[in-house]
Amino acid sequence: MDSSLQTFSSVQEESSQLSDDRSDGYDIDLQYDKQDQVSGEGSIMGAFIGDAAGAHVEYLYKVTDNLLEESMNLVGGGAHNLAPGQITEDSEMALSIFQSLLKSQGFLDLDELASHNLDWIKTNPFDLGFTTKTALTPLLCNARGIFEQVKKLNSCSQSNGCLKRITPFAVWGSQLSNDDLYKAVYLQTYMTHCHQIAIDSTYIYCYTIKLILNGNLDRKSIFDLAREEALNRNWFQICEWLDEALNFNLPCTTKNEGWLKIAFIHAFHYLISGSSYQQAIRQMIRKGGDTDTNAAIVGGLVGAFYEVQELDQSMVNKVMNLRFLEEMPNESYPYKRKQGVKRPDFMVAGLVFTQTNLYKFFRHIPTELKVIFLGKIYQNEQIDELIKKYPLSNSESS
């Protein structure tokens, strides 16, 4: 290990003074100037609402008008018989990302992120993709173990979960330089994915949210800047996908349902076409396929244009007010569930996104990337050296 790397003991001491914040459930009306923080809650909530809406018709090839209206009312049900307003597995991972960033106070603490992800998978999630399961069942249960597992076994994956869970991270990284944001996205995404397309598309998605949160509300300008960023980095596949989004050349949603290309192209299509949040997720869900994930990814991008108060409040309230009773049984079989899938408090959006936690989260939005890995702090060129240890895959298989 480079002797110039700092230890993390002082940061750990400060972080330990924070409450765990996973299940406090309190809601204090803190008085603070919202103009001093990045406005990004609409992106996060936009993704969560899209997820809860799309879950009702997940993997259906045909979504009728009645099913679509039920979905938009967040009635729950679906393949997993969820509760009204209940989110699915990758949005739960977004909660893990949020809580790890909250506890890390401005650092990208890969140790903390790994710990939260491993805690999540121990809760027996009701839906779990192959890529995520492979990544989070390493022989060595820490950040290095996960990275090595991903590098060895997930080199071909272009699954869509890396985009679905990213909105809290996109908001957190919105004040970083573009290069720092790319490095941060690279390392966070490597917790499950190491294919170049997965990393590149997730970065462009986060970069676009960054543009919006920093005041660029002209959709054509945003789209052009996103394509220019991809072109400058010689990411020609991403440029082709953006061209398809612009030219209404949209991929079928019911073939290769879990491919991230589908949601990526649709998200940028709804951005450049000027669709409202409601229009975008409604049209995305109507197409069928992996509706929860696709609507979440579309909702996270288009939702970045909105404050939470500007979203449909009945939808926001269903997601935020969902609670599970202590005596509620945790049924393994969907057909036996009457009130959704019982989940621990740290996987319940309304108990995680408290005013207190949001205040702390936005208070520590970083302007410079500092990474913690195996208890050491990495900065500047040290981060580059860390990234070199975990190269990207360019396998053609998806």
Task: State the separation between the terminal residues, measured CA to CA.
Answer: 35 Å
Helix content: 40-55%
**What would CATH call the architecture?**
Orthogonal Bundle
The CATH class, by name, is Mainly Alpha
Number of helices: 20
Total number of strands? 4
Radius of gyration: 20 Å
**How does the helix and strand content classify structurally?**
mainly alpha
Main sheet strand line-up: 1-4-3-2
Strand content of the residues, in percent? Answer: under 5%
By CATH, the topology is ADP-ribosylglycohydrolase fold
Task: Spell out the CATH superfamily.
Answer: ADP-ribosylation/Crystallin J1
* Biggest sheet character: 4 strands, mixed
- Low-confidence sequence ranges: 7-37
Average pLDDT score? 90
- How many distinct folded domains? 1
Give the helices and strands as they follow along the chain: EHHHHEHHHHHHHHHHHHHHHEEH
Question: Which of globular, elongated, flat, extended, rod-shaped describes the shape?
Answer: globular
List the helices and strands and how they pair.
Elements (H helix, E strand, L loop, with lengths): L5 E2 L1 H8 L24 H14 L10 H8 L16 H16 L3 E2 H12 L8 H6 L7 H11 L7 H4 L2 H6 L5 H12 L6 H18 L5 H14 L3 H11 L13 H13 L4 H10 L4 H12 L10 H8 L28 H4 L2 H9 L6 E4 L2 E4 L1 H8 L10
Parallel strand pairs: 2-3
Antiparallel strand pairs: 1-4, 3-4
GO molecular function: metal ion binding
Organism: Stylonychia lemnae
Keywords: Magnesium, Metal-binding
